[in-house]
Amino acid sequence: MQQEQPTTHTSPVLFFRWPFLGAALLILALTFTIGAGTGYAMASNANEQQATTSWWRFLTGSALAESSCSEKQDLLYPEFGVFWEAVRLLYQDFYGELPKPEQATYAAIRGIVGELGDPNTSFMTPEEAEFFRTNLSGSFEGIGARVEWAEEEDTLRITEPFENQPAWKAGIRRGDLVTAVDGESLAGSNLTEAIKRIRGPKGTKVVLTIVRAEVTDPFDVEVVRDRIETPIITTDTLGTNKEIAYVKLSTFNQNSGQLVRQAVEDAVARKPAALIFDLRGNSGGLLREAVKVASVFLQDQQVLLERFNDGRQETYETSGNAVSKELPMVVLVNQGSASASEIVAGALQDHGRAQLLGVTTYGKGSVQLPHTLSNGAIMRVTIARWFTPRDRTIDGTGLEPDVKVEITEEDHKVGADPQLDAAVDLLEKEIGQ
After folding, report:
1. Closest residue by Cα to residue 6 from 370, 280, 356, 334
2. Residue range 191-205, pLDDT digits in tens
């Protein structure tokens, strides 16, 4: 989740929380060391320790040194003497090509991040950061699909092809594995690199090698890229007498809260008997938008609890007037519903405002704060864990639906949606159809 991902805090007050202050030091320290040339590399250990201490004081300042994490900082910086030793020896003695300062810096940061064991804390180069910002803005040029990195298969997985957009039109399905792009394997790469290779200018072609569970051999699919406007809101009327309003939210980006409010206001104006809110495949986004969306259905209620590693707790409550506080309601969820989706679904479930229908959600209950660094890179740092109003954690476990309904491969093949059908049946019984 970003805080700006549950989800994402964009508060300028926060700077680097431990251990990322160490990462920041390592970035600048390594850059400084390499850029200083061989004269500095041959300095004595005493001078090296003094330089490390000076850089530490320069980076932290006296105010930060007096903060609650100062004890951890004090334990960290003397150990950087070993770091200086190792780097000095590498750049003095290594027989071969040394990494460029930028590459060495990024490798050092990722080395620290990799020690944390937290897949949601990550470093993005300036180029990778642009992808991150584009995803939040909601438009790009590519194939039109939501994806994730499948760790066990070491390749890309399609989690949601956007309806009527290039991937969907080419026959790519949810759950497909993309093992190669234009004949080049994705094994050993990562999510950002894979996305970079798949995206491209409108009108150009990309060939994806697909592995599908029910198909014996991999096969190639050619997709023509297009300008993709991430579909945020989809609305419809369902049921025997078209008395059930349907609203689907695909992402929590910068305008999601207002778009959901407007969609529900429009639906309520038509006086529906019930409402289906679809969060399937919605992998999250911005925390503030999750609160806004929850506020469309809840009023004067808690949305989530956020806890930090220093014991602090922050409670988020709804804001403004709800649009629909009592209309019978079902929320559709699946394994692709994550982060901000789970915040909203968990709040609605805890307050008895709606039943959840589908399968267990993804289980991402942490908050990332993205810091834009001086060169445009981004450090996304897990700063807190969040809990539902009833103090439930879903991190690693997900939310269990009130009504469990699965979608089989056969359903996918024939275009059936038993989850949506079940939601309509449930609500029609409730409203007496």
Report:
1. 370
2. 878 988 999 999 999
421 is catalytic: no
What are 341's two structure tokens? 């989706």
Whole-angstrom distance, CA of residue 430 vs CA of residue 130: 47
Q: Which residue do the tokens 């334990």 mark?
A: 75
Active-site residue identified among 278, 341, 350, 366: 350
Name the nearest CA neighbour of 1 among 331, 266, 289: 289
Instruction: Answer for the pair 256, 231: CB distance below 8 angstroms, yes or no.
Output: no
The residue annotated as part of the active site, out of 283, 339, 341, 366, is 339
Residue 339 is a catalytic residue: yes
pTM for the complete prediction? 0.68
From the candidates 248, 324, 364, 366, give the one annotated as an active-site residue. 364
- Reply yes or no on whether 364 is catalytic: yes
Structure tokens at 204: 């150009």
- Spatial contact of 380 and 292, defined as CB atoms under 8 Å apart: no
Mean pLDDT computed over 56-75: 51
* 226 neighbors 199 (Cβ within 8 angstroms): no
87-101, 189-203, 205-219, 402-416: which has the minimum mean pLDDT? 402-416
